[in-house]
Design brief:
CATH class: Alpha Beta
Radius of gyration: 10 Å
Mean pLDDT: 96
CATH architecture: 2-Layer Sandwich
Order of helices and strands: EHHEEHE
Number of strands: 4
Largest sheet: 2 strands, antiparallel
Bound molecules: iron/sulfur cluster
């Protein structure tokens, strides 16, 4: 089952992956992005492409 893993050092305050995810896996908690609904991930990798390099890795 695919799921995204966030590298917070590289993601910084970038929140664009919240909107780019078609299944609402991410949410904002305080001032950081969290993986809120990991089971909804369909492995499209849009978040990986959108995020700064190395900030999000989708693992299978
Ligand atoms: S791989 Fe696709 S579905 Fe999964 S978290 Fe990233 S954008 Fe969302």
């Amino acid at each position: 089952m695919p799921r995204p893993v966030i590298n917070y050092e590289k993601l910084g305050d970038n929140t664009e992956i919240i909107e780019i995810c078609p299944t609402n896996v991410f949410a904002k908690e305080g001032n950081k992005v969290v993986v809120k609904n990991p089971k909804e991930c369909i492995g499209c990798r849009a978040c990986e492409v959108q995020a700064p390099e190395g900030a999000v890795k989708v693992i299978d």
